[in-house]
Recover the amino acids of this structure.
């Protein structure tokens, strides 16, 4: 018996590139699990500090922000690596795939996550790039040789 094919490895002709609107719907849907992760991380950090709130702009505040960013990245990267999609992407039949053969590496997925923040911080221009790219890739997709496709409905 053969092992099932890796879902993150697909031919580019199998599924069409996902339009930006579907990607944004997936991001909005992903706010729910991300908020749960943020609450959990914040609760742990609050327990570590003995119930004392963090002072804005302090080193502890920046460390907590980094912990939240890292936990969010862990959710996204683990989801992309293990199944090619986060919960929000699954709801809209979106999948992150690599341009080449084989699964997308952990390193490229972490880079993709980090660069997605840059795409967003640039006023969303990195995401809007998908509107003019023929394969609907964002800046972080281009930099990491990935793409997001929308899979057909299963009958």
């Amino acid at each position: 018996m053969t092992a099932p094919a890796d879902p993150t490895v697909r031919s580019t002709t199998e599924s069409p590139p996902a339009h930006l609107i579907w990607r944004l719907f997936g991001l909005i849907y992903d706010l729910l699990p991300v908020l749960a992760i943020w609450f959990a991380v914040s609760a742990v950090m609050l327990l570590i500090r003995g119930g004392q709130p963090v002072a804005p702009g302090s080193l502890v505040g920046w460390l907590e922000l980094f912990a939240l960013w890292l936990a969010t990245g862990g959710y996204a990267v683990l989801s992309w690596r293990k199944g090619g999609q986060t919960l929000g992407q699954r709801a809209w039949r979106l999948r992150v795939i690599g341009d080449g053969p084989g699964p997308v590496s952990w390193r490229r997925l972490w880079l993709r996550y980090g660069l997605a923040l840059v795409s967003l911080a640039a006023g969303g221009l990195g995401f809007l790039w998908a509107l003019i790219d023929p394969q609907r890739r964002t800046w972080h997709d281009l930099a990491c040789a990935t793409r997001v496709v929308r899979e057909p409905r299963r009958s």
